[in-house]
Write a structure and sequence with these properties.
about 300 residues; alpha+beta; 10-stranded mixed sheet; Aminopeptidase; 4-stranded antiparallel sheet; 14 strands; 2 domains
């Protein structure tokens, strides 16, 4: 039986045990990650014999007196995990549509859906080959830019300068994000990096020149994924190809391992093209969107009243 659990009702040990049993690669649905990024997250679960057999994280906010499921913050995708079949998937979608007036939910790549969805792209590079083979798979223009960058000879090192990264992200990336980045989100990013460094499942890496960070990247290591989670590059770093040098350094360091480098995705063509220039493969996932008739009506009324100045 499908149950909707509020945050305080979720047994985190059972949750993590379900993910572990099914070798989940998606860090975004781990209880520790959700606790940081969405502290009041909820869940749909099916429980049998005192274990979670199926789990699905939910987010919930109130607007206009209605329950809405927003797009997750800092998580590329969520989804259904554990044992499930088409009947359970249909039940889940039926519940989402009845319970939430508006839904935006990104589903993991291997879930076969019979509902209308929008496809989105992630980019990955399996690192189970020699570095020479991986580097040979770089596109010609990326190889040329790496050669240009090497002439500047920046020093690439891991560090723990979280405040420095936040400052760089605030300056170089936040102004380009539609709607901006809230102070709460900056605090969430800080807590996430702190937790990952403390637990040794994530790290900051920077390309430095004359003691100044040109480019910085935060990576999370989870199961067999190495996720390029966030990055920031200043103008000098762009000119010196600092981010490309960081990516090449990461690929060189983790070549011949079972890890897969996860560049994450982007709907911006130039960013997606950048990922592909390292030989990354496209990996699809789905985004489900639904709005109830009542919610559409409320939005239409709100738009009308704005137009007439009420």
């Amino acid at each position: 039986m499908l149950k909707h659990l509020k945050h305080t009702q979720i047994d985190k040990k059972k949750w993590d045990a379900c993910l572990l049993q099914h070798s989940c690669e998606d860090v975004y649905v781990c209880s520790w990650f959700l606790n940081i990024t969405h502290h009041a997250w909820e869940a749909l679960v099916i429980e049998k014999e005192n274990q979670y057999e199926m789990i699905m994280p939910l987010l919930s906010i109130k607007r206009y007196g209605l329950d809405l499921h927003p797009s997750p913050i800092l998580a590329q995708r969520l989804g259904i995990y554990g044992h499930y079949n088409k009947e359970i998937i249909d039940e889940v979608f039926s519940y989402l549509n009845k319970h939430f007036a508006s839904v935006e939910y990104p589903f993991k790549k291997d879930l076969q859906l019979s509902f209308p969805v929008t496809e989105a792209s992630n980019y990955i590079l399996p690192l189970n080959k020699d570095y020479s083979i991986l580097a040979d798979g770089y596109r010609k223009d990326r190889k040329q830019r790496l050669k240009q960058g090497l002439k500047h000879n920046p020093e690439i090192t891991q560090n723990t300068d979280i405040e420095g990264f936040i400052v760089a992200y605030r300056k170089e990336i936040a102004p380009k994000i539609l709607g901006g980045v809230s102070e709460e989100t900056f605090l969430t990013i800080k807590r996430l990096i702190e937790q990952c460094i403390k637990n040794k499942n994530g790290f900051l890496i920077a390309a430095n020149k004359d003691g100044v960070a040109l480019s910085q990247t935060f990576l999370i290591k989870h199961n067999k994924r190495l996720i390029c989670f966030l990055s920031a590059t200043n103008n000098d770093g762009k000119r010196m190809q600092a981010k490309s040098l960081i990516m090449d350094h990461v690929i060189r360091t983790y070549a011949n391992t079972e890890l897969t480098l996860d560049f994450k995705g982007s709907h911006i063509n130039s960013i997606a093209d950048y990922f592909k220039s390292f030989g990354a493969e496209e990996e699809k996932y789905s985004i489900y969107r639904h709005e109830s008739a009542l919610f559409k009506c409320l939005l239409a009324v709100r738009k009308f009243t704005k137009r007439i100045g009420l």
